[in-house]
TrEMBL record:
Its EC number is 1.14.13.149. Keywords: Oxidoreductase. One of its GO terms (molecular function) is phenylacetyl-CoA 1,2-epoxidase activity. The keyword Oxidoreductase applies. PANTHER family: 1,2-PHENYLACETYL-COA EPOXIDASE, SUBUNIT A, PHENYLACETIC ACID DEGRADATION PROTEIN PAA. Gene3D superfamilies: 1.20.1260.10. It comes from the Bacteria. This is 1,2-phenylacetyl-CoA epoxidase subunit A. The keyword Transport does not apply. It is an enzyme of class 1 (oxidoreductase). Coiled coil: none annotated.
Length: 304
């Protein structure tokens, strides 16, 4: 079926189908950025695996961080169906030519940050990614189904960490509040620039890659999160946050988008560390890739 007819009928575009070059390029850009985010996103939380406050917390956190690795691998596989090479995508990440989510350039200073990441960052990721399950590109949409199920578990575990801290000692409550204070605004920035400053949105929505605009999803996240903060007994650090009866949504304060642009440009608190760590891990893992390639070649020779 022709590309336009597929889109008009809300069908899925599959790797074998004809598609415009620009559609393919946009998908590679977004899926690669998404994959890189999952992989770099292992670092802030991985920082706490050895210091999780109990065996149970440690087991949960390890499972969660491994899930993120799995998501990254799924997404690289989805990108490869578009004819790109994973090694090349990694090279582009390592040399700063492809982006990853701004949120992973903030430090995890306390154990409560692991809770805030689960609750707010994975919560925002779910709001952004559930509509991607209906993305027009089949392999990306299908990958998102399982990713979203796992993200729901991640979000719940973050909420539960914060709930425990918020109902603990005054010092634990303060630690939880401090984490939320630091992560709230960066979590809102995850949805990207405002709609009138988002160069890719209109075309991506016309192609059915994005189903909702950055601002629509950001609003949905705020509306969803406010009652959860109340249930936690924590406050969101925005004096302008209040319900607007007329709009049927919460109003919220102005986001400092210059911070987002700076972080995306590489000037966030942890950008240099994150990439240096990733490059080091990649180099340390060279022997694994070589061994896997040698094994595959041997099996192929055996089969022949
Ligand atoms: N962090 C880093 N870069 C960003 C961010 C952000 N939070 N928001 C926007 N950008 C970049 C875009 O990638 C784009 O750059 P590019 O054109 O060089 O690729 C530029 O800023 C302008 O933004 P938009 O025109 O709004 O870009 P787009 O239409 O791609 O929307 C969005 C951005 C919403 C992030 C979209 O790409 C998306 O939904 N991606 C899939 C989800 C994802 O990547 N999540 C990662 C974090 S969640 C997690 O891993 C737990």
């Amino acid at each position: 079926m022709r590309f336009e007819d597929l889109l008009a009928g809300d069908g899925r575009v599959e790797p074998r189908d004809e598609m415009p070059d620009a559609y393919r390029r946009t998908l590679v850009r977004q899926i690669a950025q998404h994959a890189h985010s999952e992989i770099i996103g292992m670092q802030p939380e991985g920082n706490w695996i050895s210091r999780a406050p109990s065996l149970r917390r440690k087991a949960i956190l390890m499972a969660k961080v491994q899930d993120e690795a799995g998501h990254g691998l799924y997404l690289y596989a989805a990108a490869e169906t578009l004819g790109v090479d994973r090694a090349d995508l990694l090279d582009q990440l390592h040399t700063g030519r492809q982006k990853y989510s701004s949120i992973f350039n903030y430090p995890t200073l306390t154990w409560a940050d692991v809770g805030a990441i689960g609750w707010l960052v994975d919560g925002a990721a779910i709001v952004n990614q559930v509509p991607l399950c209906r993305c027009s590109y089949g392999p990306y949409a299908r990958a998102m189904v399982r990713v979203c199920k796992e993200e729901s578990f991640h979000q719940r575990q973050g909420f539960e960490i914060l709930h425990t801290l918020a109902h603990g000692s005054p010092a634990q409550h303060a630690m939880a509040q401090d984490a939320v204070d630091r992560y709230w605004w960066p979590a809102l920035m995850m949805f990207g620039p405002p709609d009138d400053d988002s160069p890719n949105s209109a075309q991506s929505m016309a192609w059915g890659i994005k189903r909702f605009s950055n601002d629509e999803l950001r609003q949905r996240f705020v509306d969803m999160t406010v009652p959860q903060a109340e249930a936690l007994g924590l406050t969101l650090p925005d004096p302008d946050l209040r319900w607007n009866d007329e709009r049927g949504h919460h109003d919220f304060g102005e986001i400092d988008f210059t911070e987002l642009y700076e972080v995306v440009r590489g000037n966030g608190p942890c950008n240099a560390d994150r990439i240096a760590h990733k490059v080091r891990a990649h180099e340390d893992g060279a022997w694994v890739r070589e061994a896997a390639a040698a094994y595959a070649a041997k099996r192929e020779a055996g089969a022949a």
